[in-house]
Design brief:
Blueprint lengths: L1 H5 L3 E4 L10 E6 L7 E6 L5 E6 L4 E5 L4 E6 L2 E6 L7 E5 L12 E5 L2 E5 L9 E4 L6 E3 L13 E3 L4 E6 L3 E5 L7 E6 L6 E5 L2 E5 L9 E4 L4 E4 L13 E5 L10 E4 L11 E5 L11 E5 L6 E8 L3 E6 L2 E5 L4 E2 L3 E3 L4 E4 H6 L11 E9 L13 E2 L2 E5 L3
Antiparallel strand pairs: 1-14, 2-3, 2-21, 3-4, 5-6, 6-7, 7-8, 9-10, 10-11, 11-12, 13-14, 14-15, 15-16, 17-18, 18-19, 19-20, 22-33, 23-24, 24-30, 25-28, 25-29, 25-31, 26-27, 31-32, 31-33
Amino acid sequence: MHAQLESLFVSLALANLAAPASAQLIVGAESNYALDAVWRIDVTTGERALLFYGGASAIAVDDAGGRIFTANIGQLSVWNYGGGPSATVLGNLTDPSGLPFQPSGMAFGAGRLVATREDFPCSGWLFEIDLTTLVALPLPTPLTCISSKALSFEPSTGQFVMQGATGGLLRMDIFGGGAIQQIGTIGYPPDGGALGDAGAYYVVHDRGLWPIAKFDLATNSYTQTTYWAPYYGTGQNAGADWAPSLVLPPGPRVYCEPRLPGVPEPLRPTYTGTPSASAGSGFTITHAPLSDVNSRVQPHISLVGPAQVPFHTGQRCLRLPVLRLPHQVVANGVHSFDFNAYLASGANPALVAGQTVWYQVIEVPGPYIGTPPLSLINLGPGVSFTILP
């Protein structure tokens, strides 16, 4: 048994064997793509929300402390629950000799941040990160020759759970002597994942053309969920963990990233004001930068729900039927739309207090009248909000 374990390439971190109190999966991928981000997925409803921008080759949630650690290659960041659109960069990680340290997996447990790394030749794979010095300190382990891509903490046992590249599901008592127990066989080694809600949810560094897969521990079989990984990674690793206590702040949120990386320029939405049925103006949704100074920007809405289906160069984020709003030709590279003013115009009587709106813009470069080449169509992220009185 020990010899078999030594031959495993530990590649995937899996979290709780029991379902989290609130089944909120935090996912992200290693990336240098400007619009990539760390996301929250509610695995009960499938609802997604962008938490903050930045890549994440590894993710560790300190749920009791209300914070999410991410490592994008060798840079460590932290985001506090309810924080703004960006995480706080803590700095670059090093090993004890001062060389760059690039974690491929992380976990927060027993008040400590633990990291793994892919390692050839065999010179250490398990570390504790000192949050004061940002030095990764080697931890003792009976397995000295493992290439590890991820790690996660299991609160119900106070231990850590890993999956080997050959499919072995392992539990390890990292802080209690390093004993290892094989507790199952999953059979599939993706880039990241978390175990909970009666199954193993797997994520990969590029979302591909299929929804997130779930491995059912009761039937030992895979099924596809109905929701997609909302990010695009440009590296080789992905991160995932559970955040049971995370409460999303009220207000507009991005729920869908529609585009392939680099096709063409990223549109990042921002908002000012509050959607209101009585204000008459003051809730403005802005997208920038546009790819052309004379772009035609067409906002669209759905009043029945979100979607994520192939459309032109990316994904349509709106469930049919889709309604068009007034378009604008933009000369300064920034598109702003006052939704309250449109609401006050009475153009759509269905826009009343309590109605949830799903919103997405399409940008068409200025020279084209009619249908432009598909490669030039730029899709904005999906934004959702509820109209207040």
